[in-house]
């Protein structure tokens, strides 16, 4: 499916432009694929006794350190806040979105499986449509309504509501999975205000920095501080902060600057595919054919709403994971 979209986009450009576009697509797909590896790091950190909130703290701190270093080297002047009151945007993206959605996502992974948790995370665009309708008075078009129906149907298949299998339904994992989708959606809502003044990369850097500072008092240093001296734990912690977070977002943003945000959003749907493959083939997690159809419906809804959206420019995109 992604190949078909790629081919369609590439054929609309000249050879020179197509080469540039190919490179942009490669960066975007690579970044999205790296997001899909999050569950691999999370599950390994769980093996060392870390809780979901503690893993969120490790991800926030390692990501913040790496992003701050990158920005201070690449564009230190852009790090200055245009107004101190702008910190409220990053409190919204950092605390009400990043901390909340990461906690819900990691808890859903702990309670269920990586494929199921990732599928529920991708209900976020549906929540963005609903919230934007009430907050920004954005019109509820026919395409958006179809997208919402597809998402609802796909979610029902993923969690076992269709066909009805009461024994398979796990209320806790469903609630946390949908919670991750809501938290994920809130990033788009809060960052819509911040994007009027700051680039997406600056927003991400401040977001993880605020999240890291807010989480610091809650980490049990006396009980688990010694684990941070373990080279393997540090490898997983910095790996989580580097590959599927800082590095993934940097190369995604680089690719985004070379193409339209709607195209990038479509290509980024490779993330749940990679996450599912890791869950099924590495961690031997169950994921039925019915659930695969459900995930296909959810991804299809994302592609539909993005593909039919009129281009609004390039860098005005919202964070992925």
Can you tell me about this structure?
The protein has one domain (41-307). Helix content is 73%, strand content 0%. It is built from 15 helices and no strands. The chain has helices spanning 2-10, 15-35, 38-46, 52-74, 87-111, 114-121, 124-135, 142-159, 171-194, 200-215, 221-224, 231-256, 261-267, 270-281, 289-307.
N-to-C SSE string, H for helix and E for strand: HHHHHHHHHHHHHHH
Count of DSSP H/I helices? 15
Q: Overall 3D geometry?
A: globular
The whole-number mean of residue pLDDT values reads: 87
What class, by secondary structure content?
Answer: mainly alpha
- Alpha carbon gap, first and last residue: 22 Å
Oligomer: single chain
Radius of gyration, taken over Cα atoms and rounded to an integer in Å = 19 Å
- Based on DSSP secondary structure assignment, what is the total number of beta strands? 0
